[in-house]
Design a protein that fits this description.
The protein is an alpha/beta fold. About 45% of the residues lie in helices and about 10% in strands. It is built from ten helices and eight strands. The strands form two sheets. Strands 2-1-3-4 form a four-stranded parallel β-sheet, covered by helices on one side. It has a four-stranded parallel β-sheet with strand order 6-5-7-8. Helix 4 links the parallel strand 3 and strand 4. The protein is globular, with a radius of gyration of 20 Å.
Length: about 290
């Protein structure tokens, strides 16, 4: 089916590639996920309309773009990708071959990546932990890459993008300071269904334990070992994501008598989500 879709897209893109933008419309930039839309809009201002391929609630590791989305991408000024998430690795090369006039930018360039050998219990496509955006430090690098991309495709407004990037960097510093305040004396170990907070954990010296094992539900034996590990390490919070099954997390929470906190690492409201995660780990959240 994917092979058929690929050849169908080849025909559609060839037919639509020369379509001119409607007069008065803003030029479009396409990004791979919602957090990148947040970053890009912060730097681009109102110069571009920014759209993301993966809707919230879908997993970018398994998502297949619709034929219409991929046709629309051919009309974009650029495609900004996170870098290593599953569907990007599957589709990006094919897409670029059929949209040669659309520049592609890897926003993870310059980030100190977490490789598979550094992780335990979970494997990602390409052997790299892909959730680079869930980190204030990485967000600065991502924003710098976005600024550079915008200056390249629209050099006339370079100073404007540079100014917004500076302002965004200041905002990121303030977010980092708030997170550090929340984490001071808070929990240093947390359980999560899918390990989407590896970079967040690295930034702040935290330990992330994943319920998933090799991208699959844990076996009964693995689940028992996981519960014992959480007992021994005094885990006090479980994070769950709405796009994944929560039954095992609920069972573990009941067994350990600890709260479940819903997080959305794919949220457009990136800053709000980073602070939400930090608050859940804060000692202040344990006070009545």
């Amino acid at each position: 089916m994917k092979i058929y879709l690929y050849f169908l897209l080849t025909l559609l893109l060839a037919a639509c590639g020369s379509k001119q933008q409607t007069e008065g419309e803003k030029p479009v930039i396409t990004v791979s996920i919602e957090p990148l839309r947040y970053f890009t809009e912060a730097i681009a201002g109102d110069r571009f309309r920014v759209i993301s391929l993966v809707p919230e609630g879908s997993s970018p590791e398994t998502y297949d773009p619709t034929p219409q989305q991929l046709v629309d991408l051919n009309q974009s000024c650029a495609f900004l990708r996170a870098g290593y998430i599953g569907y990007e690795l599957i589709w990006a090369d094919k897409l670029q071959e059929n949209a040669p006039n659309v520049p592609f930018f890897n926003l993870s360039e310059g980030i100190n990546l977490i490789h598979e050998s550094e992780k335990e219990g979970h494997k990602h496509a390409g052997g790299i932990e892909p959730h680079t955006w869930n980190s204030v430090r990485n967000a600065y690098t991502i924003a710098a890459n976005i600024c550079q991309a915008l200056c390249q495709i629209d050099p006339e407004h370079k100073e404007e993008y540079m100014t917004r990037f500076t302002q965004f960097g200041t905002a990121l510093k303030q977010t980092d300071e708030k997170i550090l305040t929340y984490l001071n004396g808070g929990e240093t170990i947390f359980l999560i269904y899918h390990p989407a907070l590896s970079y967040f954990a690295r930034d702040y010296g935290l330990t992330q334990i994943s319920i998933e094992k090799g991208g699959k539900e844990p076996s009964p034996a693995q689940l028992e070992a996981l519960i014992n590990q959480c007992h021994e390490q005094h885990v006090q919070v479980i994070f769950i994501q709405k796009e994944f099954d929560t039954r095992n997390a609920e069972m573990i929470a009941q067994e350990l008598n600890i709260p479940i906190v819903t997080v959305n690492p794919l949220s457009y409201r990136w800053e709000e989500e980073m602070l939400h995660i930090a608050r859940a780990l804060s000692k202040l959240s344990k006070q009545p």
